[in-house]
Design goal:
Distance between the termini: 103 Å
Number of helices: 15
Helix content: 10-25%
Largest sheet: 7 strands, mixed
Oligomer: single chain
Number of strands: 33
């Protein structure tokens, strides 16, 4: 052990005895500049600075972030990779754990670091403010067993666009069937600026460097390597790993690695670092995808540059999650329950793509989901009380869940879990690879699987993840690719041990106050008032109890059917004719055919898709519509059934509706004769 390392070790051990509150005042505000070297535009910074300076604390410290919002919209902050155990309300995602900090208001986040050390980052989690610059490294230095190295460097990899994020998304989403706009390719940034113009990375001969490499990209995958140098991976997403030697790193958005690089013993040459930025979600165009960047690893200012990157013919070795093992040797967790989540892609009639994990696109609710879980009492353990667009899964305390994430599409994804890290235990092919993509191989972890909070799920691949539900709260699990993926619905919500959450945590009064400032309700079911009041049954109940905050059980309707009913009411919420009680659409003078045609003419694309279900579901919808007294829905499903019956013989209707004929031929003939008048 050299003297330098011994000194660092002693300092770290002493510091652990004096954990402190590290207090930072952040004014989140608009700043102007050209971080890509060419496009001068508005972005988001802190205290007038962009890029935002990194945050460093010692393990055990409490980071106190006093945030003042000088933007003209609400904002919030998420400490990416931090557990927030016992303080779920500090997690940051807007309309999940908070309402956001209104313009002109201030709020203090307190981040406890006692249970974690490693490489993290802090970023905006409202309106994708991170894409426009509200992001910075967050380093928690270990006070227990520091790795043997001499110096450390933080390297951030980003993608930067010439237009603000929401401006780009509005431009793309409002095409309305016209020719698609040209793809807006990002510029790769390294340590905050155009990677081709960034300052040299300086090495001293013989020193061991810890490089903390963070992908803060919104969309692009990042490859990073240094010519003539090997890297030894020692950390992924804040979790210590058994050392593994590689040639470089391949990071998806949101992922982090620490590597040890030993500097060469000579100053005769300088070397080249290479940064490749690419996105699977856009077309391959020459000179645009992938984009190559390079800079200097400097041993001596005037030394000749030696670049091996174009001369090395052997296939480089990249870290693979299945090859990496956790340093604490935690074995495979025994599975109690499995949840399968399949990536789905939808294209609307204007050509705009939407994504989901399962059948439902994630959309923000009217009530933050945490506040629903905290206010619904025993009903909080029932998944059906949460708005259907949350894709909510309720987890029991301490159960081990295996998530099977399947991606049968041509796009790559990274999925980030709030409040947890997870074991990555297996990966393999999902469907037949197309579009020139290579076939995915089957891989399985060794005895001590890597744990991380952000995982890559490549095109035509499935991945198995395991976690123990030991952190009561409401946690988001979502694709970390902002443009088109997370922005357009690729997420689910995990409601973990809500019965313990209600006992152990209390939402700060300031957070409730900030919701009220924005007119956002803070209690009750996440199904919005104007939606549930489309039900005559519920309107009558509300008129009796006098308060919409009181939980209202719906015993005669199953959770999946209630989800579909709420989807229907939400879609038609702005139709004035559906907001008040009304009579059925038919009258006694209508012929059955006229009534059916009128009903069909009033159906939109949503209604047609809504009714395209199996027979059992259709009849369950009829029962639910009648029990809840939603007359337009009664009309819709009733006429759907009538339309299925139109023009069919008795035998055909029996086959359509799976009705068993329990008449003998003689009985059937007698019934036909007795009712012959019906066919006159």
């Amino acid at each position: 052990m050299n003297v330098c390392f011994l000194f660092i070790f002693v300092v770290f051990r002493l510091t652990s005895c004096f954990a402190k509150r590290v207090e930072l005042d952040w004014s989140v505000e608009y700043v102007y500049g050209a971080r890509d070297g060419s496009n001068y535009r508005r972005s988001i910074g802190v205290n007038g600075a962009t890029p935002i300076p990194a945050v460093h604390v010692m393990q055990g410290d409490t980071l106190v972030l006093n945030v003042h919002n000088k933007l003209d919209v609400a904002t919030s902050l998420h400490s990416h990779g931090i557990y927030n155990n016992g303080t779920n309300y500090f997690d940051g995602p807007s309309m999940v754990t908070e309402c956001g900090i209104p313009p002109g208001e201030s709020f203090t986040y307190e981040i406890n670091t006692a249970a974690q050390s490693g490489t993290f980052w802090i970023h905006g989690h409202t309106r994708h403010a991170d894409v426009d610059g509200l992001r910075t490294p967050f380093i928690i230095h270990s006070n227990k067993t520091p790795v043997d190295y001499d110096e450390e460097l933080v390297i951030t990899l980003e993608d930067w666009y010439s237009l603000e994020f929401l401006v780009r998304m509005e431009y793309v989403d409002n095409v309305k069937g016209q020719e698609r706009p040209p793809v807006n390719y990002a510029t790769g940034l390294l340590n905050g600026y155009d990677a081709n113009r960034t300052a040299p990375i300086k090495f001293c001969p013989g020193k061991r460097y810890r490089l903390r490499v963070i992908s803060m990209a919104a969309n692009n995958w990042s490859v990073f390597r240094i010519s003539g140098h090997k890297m030894t991976v020692i950390e992924a997403d804040g979790v210590r790993l058994m050392p593994l030697e590689v040639d470089g790193l391949n990071l998806g958005p949101g992922q982090r690695n620490s590597v040890i690089v030993t500097a060469l013993n000579s100053t005769d040459f300088n070397y080249v670092f290479e940064f490749i930025s690419t996105a699977s979600s856009v077309d391959n165009l020459e000179d645009l995808k992938p984009r190559y960047y390079s800079g200097i690893v400097e041993y001596r200012e005037d030394a000749t540059i030696k670049d091996f990157s174009k001369q090395n013919d052997k296939e480089p070795v990249w870290p693979d999650d299945m090859a990496l093992q956790a340093a604490d040797k935690q074995p495979w967790l025994p599975v109690d329950r499995s949840i399968e989540l399949t990536v789905n892609r939808f294209i609307d009639k204007f050509g705009v793509p939407y994504w989901s994990l399962g059948k439902t696109l994630y959309q923000p609710t009217i009530v933050p989901t945490l506040y629903t879980a905290m206010s619904m009492g025993n009903l909080a353990s029932n998944e059906s009380v949460y708005a259907p667009q949350t894709n909510a899964y309720v987890l029991r305390h301490l159960e081990v869940i295996e998530f099977v994430i399947s991606n049968p599409f041509i796009n790559d994804h990274t999925f980030h879990m709030h409040g947890h890290d997870f074991q990555v235990t297996e990966a393999g092919p999902c469907g037949k690879a197309t579009g020139g993509y290579p076939e995915v191989s089957y891989r399985k972890s060794g005895p001590w699987p890597i744990r991380r909070d952000t995982v890559q799920v490549r095109a035509f691949e499935y991945v198995r993840l395991r976690l123990r539900a030991d952190n009561p709260g409401v946690w988001r699990f979502h694709c970390h690719i902002a443009p088109g993926h997370d922005y357009n619905g690729l997420a689910v919500i995990l409601v973990e041990a809500p019965e313990l959450l209600q006992k152990q945590q209390q939402i700060p009064s300031k957070m409730i106050e900030m919701c009220k400032m924005q007119g956002i309700p803070t209690a009750g079911n996440a199904a919005e008032q104007d939606i549930i009041e489309q039900s005559g049954t519920i309107r009558n109940i509300l008129s009796d109890i006098g308060s919409s905050d009181t939980p209202i059980p719906v015993p005669n309707v199953s959770g999946p059917i209630l989800t579909k009913v709420i989807d229907y009411c939400r879609h038609h919420r702005n139709d004035p004719s559906r907001r008040q009680p009304r009579e059925p659409v038919y009258d006694e003078t209508d012929s059955s055919e006229t009534a059916i045609q009128r009903a069909i003419s009033q159906m939109d694309d949503f209604d047609e898709e809504f009714c395209r279900v199996d027979q059992g579901t259709l009849f369950d919808l009829i029962l639910a519509a009648n029990f809840l007294d939603i007359q337009p829905l009664i009309d819709l499903v009733g006429f759907t059934v009538a339309n299925k019956m139109k023009g069919k013989t008795v035998e055909e209707m029996r086959a359509t509706f799976n009705v068993k004929n329990d008449f003998t031929p003689e009985e059937e003939e007698r019934v036909r004769q007795e009712n012959a008048w019906c066919e006159e």
